[in-house]
Write a structure and sequence with these properties.
single chain; alpha+beta; seven-stranded mixed β-sheet
């Protein structure tokens, strides 16, 4: 599938595909005489290498010529400054209650106007790596932000001959009703009072940042935000919204295929926020016990009719905290952000990881990190795993019933990630609910609910909750979680009725068996289920009911709550 970039005269006008106010403000900026088109990854690399402040390390990008770089290209490091994580508070999404699009459009217009004094770079990439789903995205960003430009082109699929041909041979997304994605970004933006401008519509108390999404128009405006993750997730937000409108379940998670004997396979999808263990579980090789094929560890989509899955990105944006100096995995680095640097024994500049400089050090790793990486898994997904950090949940439980399976994903409980910059007063250690582990959704929650419910109910996909945190104070180790997955894949896991629950089964894992006669435990378990009930109930009124769920969702979770005894 491809998006629409060119228009006949009779296709141009109000109400037609690709023509609406916010989009017109943003797209028009791409055609200014101050805009320089960046056509290749090599051009972007040279710009980033020579950009002030870039640290050119002594490490050569491994097999970089295979994905558009010169053979001697080096791993580049760039540090952003005080901010080293996402700031969801700055998001403004068109269509949500209280979002003043007229005021936000004027802020975008003013930002575009002021960008005329800057040289702006225009880059293009593909999101989606198979002819079944490929959309084109454009980024406009000012001179001085060359590392953001380069990282963006690496993170997504740059315009290689192979993928351009693939894109041209793909069918239009939504029968031609989906235009290209356009993103205007100015990290250097500082709001200045002026006629017609109202900065009170910004969410940031200091009124200095904005992520303005209009996913119905496939466009976004990112202002005052230097962190690359804002640009990566901002682009994914747009691609996921397109996928949602066209019959796909949009997934912030990882997927792998276990290639079993006799030509059989087991396709597992794991869903969790950054820091939940989704990347670890996705890439785990299980000590060579299985032949593993990886789709991706962060962004993919599932066709809700065929149950096949497609990766959105070729590379991996991974934390560096768990990869010390000398770690073999560092061989696959392409760029690094927000980490330290020093000299090695040969006098070469080398990176300092493990979050010594700051939290949330990051790197983009090449596709080669996963030796058995694919862009599409055509086999239907067999199981969904909701990764939670809820201390009342044992290492694994199995959910019966499509409504419960989907609503438990919609009430996925976890801890905050160090990748997030939080508003003042927010407790970073508090458990929070993030539906389907995807804080980047811009469409009504019911869309995801119905799609995952369909996968379980009509496509017979199994659904589990996996706890990767602690169980009543006892740490659940990575080895335990991997053992859980292995037992399910090998069909050795023995699930049985759990307590009084009609629709939850438990596989009793040694050392983590809940005592259903312990009043303290039952009270805590009931309290956590009460939190979920409250969360679903509050969706009816929150943001004008934008994320309201159907009655069967609340009924399913209330049933679990009532059975906590």
């Amino acid at each position: 599938m491809s998006t629409k970039a060119y228009y006949k005269t009779n296709e141009i006008g109000p109400g037609k595909t690709g023509f609406a106010k916010t989009r017109s403000i943003i797209e028009s900026a791409f055609y200014g005489n101050n805009v320089v088109k960046i056509n290749t990854l090599k051009e972007a690399y040279d710009l980033a290498k020579n950009s002030p402040g870039t640290v050119v390390t002594g490490q050569t990008v491994y097999r970089g010529e295979e994905f558009g770089l010169e053979p001697d290209a080096k791993v580049l490091l760039f540090n952003d400054g005080a901010i080293t994580g996402r700031y969801a508070t700055a998001s403004r999404i068109a269509g949500m209650e209280g979002v003043n699009c007229d005021a936000l459009d004027k802020i975008a217009m003013d930002a575009v106007y002021k960008s005329r004094w800057k040289t702006m770079y225009h880059a293009e990439v593909f999101c989606g790596l198979d002819p079944e789903f490929m959309v084109k995205a454009h980024l406009l960003i000012p001179e001085g932000e060359e590392n953001l430009l380069y990282n963006w082109m690496i993170n997504f699929q740059y315009m290689s001959d192979e993928y351009i041909k693939m894109y041209k041979n793909s069918d239009p997304v939504g029968k031609g009703n989906e235009p290209d994605i356009y993103i205007f970004s100015d990290p250097q933006w500082i709001p200045e009072e002026g006629p017609g401008l109202d900065f009170s519509v910004l969410s940031d108390p200091q009124k200095k940042t904005l992520c303005y999404f209009n996913t119905e128009q496939n466009c976004a405006c990112i202002l005052g935000m230097k962190y690359f993750g804002e640009h990566k997730k901002g682009t994914l937000t747009m691609a996921w919204a397109i996928a949602n409108r066209n019959g796909y379940a949009s997934c912030h998670g990882g997927q792998k295929r276990y290639n079993l004997k006799g030509g059989k396979s087991f396709v597992a999808s794991v869903f969790g926020l950054s820091g939940s263990g989704k990347s670890t579980l996705t890439h785990a090789k299980h000590g060579g016990k299985f032949d593993i094929t990886v789709l991706h560890d962060d962004a993919f989509i599932i066709n809700t009719d065929t149950c096949s899955s497609i990766a959105i990105e070729p590379t991996y944006f991974d934390k560096t905290a768990d990869y010390p100096a000398g770690c073999p995995d560092n061989k696959y680095l392409i760029t690094v952000q927000n980490v330290g640097a020093t000299l090695d024994e040969n006098g070469e500049v080398t990176i300092v990881t493990e979050d010594i400089r700051n939290g949330n050090g990051r790197a983009i790793k090449s596709k080669l990190w996963s030796p058995n990486r694919v862009d599409k898994i055509p086999e239907p997904v067999n199981a969904i795993f909701w990764i939670m950090k809820d201390p009342t949940i044992p290492p694994v439980v199995k959910l019966k019933g499509a409504a419960l399976a989907s609503v438990m994903g919609a009430t996925l409980a976890t801890k905050r990630s160090s990748a997030e910059r939080l508003a003042p007063g927010v407790d970073p250690n508090a458990l929070v609910v993030v539906p389907y582990a995807n804080p980047f959704r811009t469409y009504p929650l019911v869309n995801d609910y119905e799609k995952f419910k369909k996968l379980v109910e009509k496509k017979k996909v199994d659904c589990y909750i996996v706890n990767t945190g602690d169980f009543m104070g006892k740490k659940i180790t990575k080895e335990v979680t991997l053992g859980v997955l292995e037992s399910i894949v090998e069909k050795k896991a023995k699930f049985k009725k759990w307590g009084n629950f009609s629709d939850i089964e438990i596989c009793e894992w040694k050392g983590y068996v809940p005592d259903m006669k312990d009043k303290n435990y039952l009270e805590q378990l009931k309290a956590r289920m009460a939190d979920r009930v409250k969360f679903v109930e509050e969706l009816d009124k929150k943001q004008g009911g934008f994320d309201r769920l159907p009655a069967d969702a609340l009924k399913a979770i209330k049933k679990v709550f009532n059975e906590c005894k």
